[in-house]
Sequence to fold (453 residues):
Amino acid sequence: MSDYGADLMAEVKAKNPGEPEFHQAVQEVVDSLAVVLEKKPVYRKFKVLERMVEPERVIMFRVPWINDKGGIEINKGYRVQMNSAIGPYKGGLRFHPTVYLGLLKFLAFEQVLKNALTTLPMGGSKGGSNFDPKGKSDNEVMKFCQSFMLELSRHIGPSLDVPAGDIGVGGREIGFLFGQYKRVRNEFTGVLTGKGLNWGGSLIRPEATGYGAVYFAAEMLGTRNETLDGKVCLVSGSGNVAQYTVEKILDLGGKPVTLSDSGGYIYDEAGIDRKKLAFAMELKNVKRGRISEYADKFKSAVYTPVDPKADSNPLWNHKAHCAFPSATQNEINAKDAANLLKNGVYVVSEGANMPTVPDGVEQFVKAGILYGPGKAANAGGVATSGLEQSQNALRLSWTREEVDNRLHGIMKSIHKQCVDAAKAYGTPGNYVNGANIAGFLKVADSMLDQGVV
Ligand code: NDP
Fold:
């Protein structure tokens, strides 16, 4: 079996050179599936995993647009349609200068398993551009979005592929993208999620990923008869996921003490309360400012800029009970993981996708802490996107309470699926194995049913 896993990884690396994040994501799943593939040789016979690591379709295109000075700019656009075994493709769009094909393949691969865990009928995809919205005017962002969607609109649709937001793609970008889709296709359909409430969006969608990650942490704590009440929480990022993670931590009685962006982080020992959170949200969502301004406003906070030469991130080196990485991939390195454990952190619920390097994951699992990997813990976002699609199809809107209750129920179900699968395959309490196995089985069995396609 180990030969099978090693051979498969060698093939993935040879066929997808220069894509380390994709290799990393596949390796973790291959490791988790060793027992499953041994017990059920049918998956090997029909090369299910070999097919799952190959995208069904990759679309790459030029995105030309005109900046405010009249200059021509050219970006790259992508959509990776990874797997449609259990439903139409679904996954976010990321606008960030680091975006390239390998990054989107890792995200799309994770998305397939994540979407399977949500209990909703959604395949997996991911897309985006190396466009950087930071420092651009609203007009420039609109021009870019319109050019991006002019091409993307040929490849998506409500029963084909439904994109949503991710890093750099929030309510403003979804609005510009939706407007252009509607214009080009001459139809008003639920082709994007994360839409504004006046034009088909769902209540709780903006909150869903952060809320879901905190619900997942609460479920994990529940296995030890504990709650979030009184727990000190480290949160990274200050975007969509981080903001609503902080809000839900406050709802459940916890004490968030950090926020960050790519420039640095703030540590507020007194706690980030609702008033301070409102300031941070206005700062990030409206003024589009830097998190350092939080420390200018609130004297209880200390700002530490990023030190590019440092071997670890000091954000993860404070005494705390829980950590919610909510910024980006590989933001917790091996030393950070060791620092978290040293400081007493015993709950890690990943709002971001693959925020912990493999060595860090291994440390968490070995230490036996409550470690919820991103594809389980942050699945509340895409699950609520699925609920937005359902409301669009029914042409009605559910109340805030109704959507929140469904989200909460889905997070409980994901937690249970992870716990049950981990136990059934001999590693009780290992949420990494649990999430990978439960997600894989649903997709793999559907692929077997549908033949070699
Ligand atoms: P946002 O763009 O709203 O916020 C991202 C935050 O992370 C910002 O504070 C940003 O700082 C910081 N950040 C991004 N890239 C880096 C980097 N390379 N180094 C340091 N800091 C960085 O994105 P979201 O909150 O939507 O997404 C955050 C994470 O959650 C991502 O991993 C995403 O894939 C994941 N996720 C998001 C979902 C959603 O529904 N939005 C669903 C599931 C997962 P700065 O502004 O300085 O760049």
Summary: Residues 165-168, 170, 209, 237-242, 261-263, 326-328, 351-353, 378, 381 surround NDP (CB under 6 Å). The domain at 208-372 is CATH 3.40.50.720 (Rossmann fold).
